[in-house]
Structures
1.
Amino acid sequence: MVNDKELLADRFEEHRGHLKAVAYRMLGSLAEAEDAVQEAWLKLSRSDADDIENLGGWLTTVVGRVCLDMLRSRTRRHEEPLDDTFVPDPVIRPLATIDPEQEVLHADSVGLALLVVLEALEPAERIAFVLHDMFAVPFDDIATIVERSSAATRQLASRARHRVKGATPSTEPDPGRQRQVLDAFMAASRAGDFEALLAVLDPGIVLRVDSGPLVGGAAASKVVRGAKPVAEQAMLFRQFAHYMQFVSVNGAVGVLNAPEGRPQSVMAVTVVDGRITEMYILADPERLAGLDLPDLAG
């Protein structure tokens, strides 16, 4: 009996990475994604695994149902729509690990800009889009999760696809070019060069800062629009620019601000035509403390 349990656990572990990637895209939270995967394991351990023909498909469906419940619960808890300042959990790695060919294949390689757009979708739309468009799950299988007909599920994914396409601009794919633009931004910040900051920021840039519910004052959560106001924000916090270091944030070049090794913020950007069009900063102390940060000392 013990051997059967261990064998089942080994088979589950073969699918863990895929399941966490699915759950992360659905939830935008690494901790909640881990909870969803653990719930799938509990359901599997209580099931008759011998009757499951396609374990990977079965587990993906279970994770989809768990995530749908979590998204619906999240929606019920928020009487108002999710705050515009919300920034999803970033996946951070040392920049040296970026390989453009391999990074695309990595389970966590999905940009923060896309995750922000996904947050605005209805729960069933998000499930349908993620499972079908990102993981090629057939609509018939997704229909059982969202409790709709296959045709209605197809419409859910189509609506989501239209919203995603309209809200996520084409970004600079070259990590070297991303770094060049961010380097110019950081150099201008360190030097306090306002004109140089304006030169690297798109006129219509949107800055989203998520500092959590407990941080107030100048560092509080906010959405800032326009190159001049965003440059003014950069000038306001220029003393921290000396602690910034390049990291990989969800497969793209980003910045970690960690004075004395203590993470204070993580920044991701969208670069279009050599300028920063979107900036996402997570500065919530509680959520930063829960992230799996790489050892960047070397």
2.
Amino acid sequence: MVKIGIILGSTRPGRNGEAVARWVYDVASQRTDVEFELVDLLDYNLPHLDEMMPPSMGQYAQPHTQAWASKIASFDGFVMVTPEYNHSTSGALKNAIDFLYGEWNNKAVGFVGYGSVGGTRAVEHLRLIAGELQMADVRAQVALSLFTDFENFSTFKPGQHQVDSLNATLDQVQAWSAALAPLRAA
């Protein structure tokens, strides 16, 4: 069975991303064709990149990097939940991505963005990064607006159309993750 990690890409106190990631997980968990796991960056306590060797070498010296690499390697694909800060993704998510290389290769990735314009600029930056990491980013995405999907910019209340967008994203991540399995096995 395909295993998808839902990565909560914010570590900020009072983050909106926790409610968004739990919603993604709750909707995803209704499916029987895929196994999902919520991965919270707070649980990994990754400092600013502190490995001597480039991630492409796969020679991780730090225990926190080894634990992170093991977790990411266990998945066939991902859904990244990202806020938009200053027209990009969070520094915490970018840093977590930059710790690894091979563990991301030949896996599918979909995006759930949130912000004043739905996190779309953060997602576009992540798509560029995904290409460099040899990931297949899916076309469907969820764009959550702080104005319409959050009450008072903090209480998450997505519309039904967002569930439809999420299911389309999950469908594509599942399909691409399964399709890339032969490349991961090689």
3.
Amino acid sequence: MADVAAHVGVSRQLVGLAFSNEPGVAAQTRKRILDAADELGYRPNTAARSLRSASTKTIGVIFHPNESAPLEILEWIYEYGRRAGYTVIVSTASPSRAERRAIDELIGYRCEALILISPREDPDVLRSATGHTPVVVVGRDMPNSEFDVVRSRGDEGIETIVRYLADLGHTDMIYVHGSDMFDSELRLAGYRKAMSSLGLDEQVLEVRGDYTEESGASAARLLLERELLPTAIVCNNDQAALGLSHVLQQAGVLIPEHVSLTGYDDSRIASLSFLDLTTARQDPEEIGASAISAAVARITGSASKPTQRWTSAPLVVRGSTAPPSR
């Protein structure tokens, strides 16, 4: 920092204010300081600076890396965190790395709030682990807790898909449900509500475990054991639809000629030409922005009570759906 100050001809205190984005530094002077830092290859030691301050300006995020939707949301959490003046620190949870361990790590870094994307642990466990740190949960209901919640309208998204398929003429629709995944119960409720209102029989195929391409492939193998496939299959995420599509087509089942297929999320894989998946769009930017907004509101004290924020899930029609052939 002393080298940057000498290079620009200002005090070290002014350089510190510029790096911290504090008031009291003219815009032109701030630019000269930041340009000088780039020229000299200087980077502020944010860890050391946070130890000297009551505020670390950091938000911790925990996610499960085997799901595509959280990865896309994470991009926008970084972006909106930056806009709000916060550094985002990420930790992952997996079968070999418990959520509690990831939480302990982020609290050790003095994160001022935590964003938990589709946490698996029981709310009481999470409450005990996080203590007094503000928590925003993305993608899961947390009834009777002090956590803020951000969720897409998964029930409405799936309900819209089922009604769209019914309008095409489908009455035999099976729902592939992954109970361990992001927002799963809400999406299942949407399927059941739509089928009931249409007077159609529910058919739910539950696949346990991480809801990835392999889980969708497992669901396809189970379906192929039946004598007659349904005319439409509704998957509760795009990754599962991808795995299911691959196995069905290897077995000679054409999509959408023999079976219509839908997903949920509108992740990047949905628009790939070989899949061309009809799906419900979960807007990762809207969710990321809402999560950061909730976290910052709790950090700054502008929101004293837990909030529940909902994001939309509009239908995106592509080539994987068509009227039934029988």
